[in-house]
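Lab meeting, item 3. Inverse folding demo.
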C-alpha cells in the first residue's frame, strides 16, 4: 500500500488502464487532476461521459458518428463508388491522412478462428450489400495472418460481383498493425494497391 488517499489511488489506477500510460505517468496525471480547478475537471468529466453517451456508429459504414450517418458518408464530395474496408474506426483517421477521397466500411474486427471471431461477428453482410453499387473495394486490413484471412474471405464472397477488389501494396511491415505505419508508407501503399480478383 502507498501513502496516497484512496480516492487519488483510484484515479491513478483508472489512468493506468489507458494505452501507453504507465504507473509514473498515471501518478502525474492523478496529481494534475487534483490540482486542476473545478470547472476544468467538470468539463473533462462531462466530455468523457458525452463520448460514451453521444457517439455511436454510422448505420452505413460503422464509423464513429453522432448521428445516423457519419461525416464522411454525408459528404457529397466523397466518391461513393470506392469503398475502403478497414478493421476499426481508428484506421479511418489514419487513412484520411493519405488524401483518399472514397468512402469506408468498418468491419469491427478481423477473422481470427483462434479467438473465436468468424465472419458472422463482423460487418460483412452490410458490406456485401454496399458492394453491389460500388466499382472498387480497397481492402485495407493489416498485413497479418488475420488481415490476410479476412481479405481472402471478402474477395471470395464477392467473387461473382462486377467489382474490382484491391489490397494495400506490401510496403507495409508484415504482421504489423496499420496504427504503426508511418503516413508516407500508408499513402504509398494505397496509391500502389494491388488487384486481388479478376474483374476488370
Ligand atoms: Zn459512415
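The presenter then showed the designed sequence:
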Amino acid at each position: 500500500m502507498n501513502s496516497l488517499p484512496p480516492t487519488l489511488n483510484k484515479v491513478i489506477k483508472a489512468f493506468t488502464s489507458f494505452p501507453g500510460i504507465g504507473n509514473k505517468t498515471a501518478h502525474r496525471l492523478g496529481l494534475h487532476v487534483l490540482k486542476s480547478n473545478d470547472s476544468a475537471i467538470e468539463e473533462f468529466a462531462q466530455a468523457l461521459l458525452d463520448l460514451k453517451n453521444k457517439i455511436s456508429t454510422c448505420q452505413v459504414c460503422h464509423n464513429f458518428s453522432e448521428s445516423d450517418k457519419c461525416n464522411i458518408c454525408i459528404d457529397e464530395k466523397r466518391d461513393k463508388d470506392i469503398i475502403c474496408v478497414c478493421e476499426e474506426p481508428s484506421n479511418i483517421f489514419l487513412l484520411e491522412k493519405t488524401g483518399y477521397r472514397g468512402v469506408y466500411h468498418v468491419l469491427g474486427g478481423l477473422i481470427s478462428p483462434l479467438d473465436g471471431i468468424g465472419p458472422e461477428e463482423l460487418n460483412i453482410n452490410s458490406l456485401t450489400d454496399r458492394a453491389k453499387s460500388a466499382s472498387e473495394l480497397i481492402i485495407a486490413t493489416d498485413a497479418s495472418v488475420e488481415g490476410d484471412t479476412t481479405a481472402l474471405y471478402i474477395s471470395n464472397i464477392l467473387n461473382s460481383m462486377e467489382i474490382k477488389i484491391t489490397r494495400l501494396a506490401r510496403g507495409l511491415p508484415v504482421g504489423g498493425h496499420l496504427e504503426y505505419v508511418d503516413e508516407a508508407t500508408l499513402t504509398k501503399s494505397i496509391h500502389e494497391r494491388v488487384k486481388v480478383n479478376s474483374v476488370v
